């Protein structure tokens, strides 16, 4: 029997005993009880035949033979009263006195108090290894894995430089004496920084698995509570636990929850968090020289951490675990593909090239989605088509096959996406077409997916062509329909953002020169801008952005006007097939015939209500 039902049994037992105790101490009057004054009147009238005296309780039998009744005298009946009743020819019997235990009135309350204390103690006992109860809220919530994790560096891919940095930590944990003999001080703390899903926790477990040492895992939010001093007490308990299991690794996930820069508590901030941080700083700097405890922490926001955490002697090293490159993505895909039946046409190297910007969690989710698709359709192996569909699901969401689309909206979407694709194909420095489709997916009615490579530097010519590609959808609508729609909303947002950053951040406009008018602080969770220019400069920037976008609009308009016949051909093919791969698109542009499409149900139904058109997603510029 587990502990929770046992506690409930004790509560039930206590309730029964309490009810029994009250039954012993309570005196309920029978239903046939009458008032003492009525009894005296009955005696005066001569209607009483017999009285049984039991202390103050009198059991009276009437002369007419009716049922006896009970009354209670104000005080115990004395001898004179009994003699008087005898003179009235009433038979009187006196019951022997009760022998009551004098300790009963003392033991029953004591028993009740003892039962309540026992029940409270049982309910407040530890319910698990974390000790999460009223008496142990100062204990650390850390999970202690006394046996080393089975994860090793072989299970980690896409971050070779980070693994090289951490191998030194592994060597120290395996043989710390070799370093101490040389007078070397091993880093006491290692801070893992990177975007969400990049594998920071995974590589920390791999370090513990390689070193064959215990792994103590906690989260930054585990320390801070509403009670003052609890966080600091939990930090002390965490490090005491680590000392008992040394050599070991302490891993604190999302350390920015407790390690934020101090000083924000003035005027209503959380001073408890600052006390917790102070205790963490003291514990990390208070290790003995011979200590074999390594503190590892992970965060997506290293920019908000307190500088005292990052100084030598605490978190000596920062190990960046960024999004993997194409080779790293292929290695990650091969690790997650183990145990999954892949068809012969699956090319993981090609899939890695088509997924720039994906982190480890995205790639694992991609393979899982592909496996679900294959199982849903009853296949025994995962095909390349499943993987392509899964990649689209991760980026854009599932295909909305049942979405109601009118013929007019479908035609507008086809021309719009064909315009994007043709601009990307004919502009020299633009990213070429990987896929173009008019299948609704997510919030988009269709999209053109570029074949983008991992790029560290974006040239001015490439950015200019990307802006022209973004505007090409609106240009195609205007050329064909002599009208425009709302479908270019996201295109304008992308083009305007690129043009403004070219002027204010990257010094790519001759009128403004090489001046940083705007500083962009990039973090792993997004960026924020700091404006550093006057209102007059802001007006000039707005005018320059507008002129620049208009120039690119006219440029791509001239291109699509010249390629109008190709635009019509690509659009007709899109309306027939709905999706074209990069290779199929090139063949259509060059006028070559395509193979007959496989027989599939059309994507979407034709109806009268047009949905809102918001194509494509914002391209990832990386660190451009």
UniProtKB/TrEMBL annotation:
It comes from the Bacteria. SUPFAM superfamilies: FtsH protease domain-like, P-loop containing nucleoside triphosphate hydrolases. Gene3D superfamilies: 1.10.8.60, 3.30.720.210, P-loop containing nucleotide triphosphate hydrolases, Peptidase M41. Keywords: ATP-binding, Cell inner membrane, Cell membrane, Hydrolase, Membrane, Metal-binding, Metalloprotease, Nucleotide-binding, Protease, Transmembrane, Transmembrane helix, Zinc. Zn(2+) binds at residues 416, 420, 491. Residues 602-611 have a biased composition (Basic and acidic residues). GO terms for biological process: protein catabolic process; proteolysis. The active site is at residue 417. Binds 1 zinc ion per subunit. One of its GO terms (cellular component) is plasma membrane. The keyword Cell inner membrane applies. Pfam families: AAA, AAA_lid_3, FtsH_ext, Peptidase_M41. It is an enzyme of class 3 (hydrolase). Residues 614-624 have a biased composition (Low complexity). Its EC number is 3.4.24.-. One of its GO terms (molecular function) is ATP binding. Residues 186-325 form the AAA+ ATPase domain. It is found in: Cell membrane; Membrane. Residues 586-624 are annotated as: Disordered. NCBIfam families: FtsH_fam. Homohexamer. PANTHER family: ATP-DEPENDENT ZINC METALLOPROTEASE YME1L1 (PTHR23076:SF97), METALLOPROTEASE M41 FTSH (PTHR23076). Acts as a processive, ATP-dependent zinc metallopeptidase for both cytoplasmic and membrane proteins. Plays a role in the quality control of integral membrane proteins. This is ATP-dependent zinc metalloprotease FtsH. It comes from Meiothermus luteus.
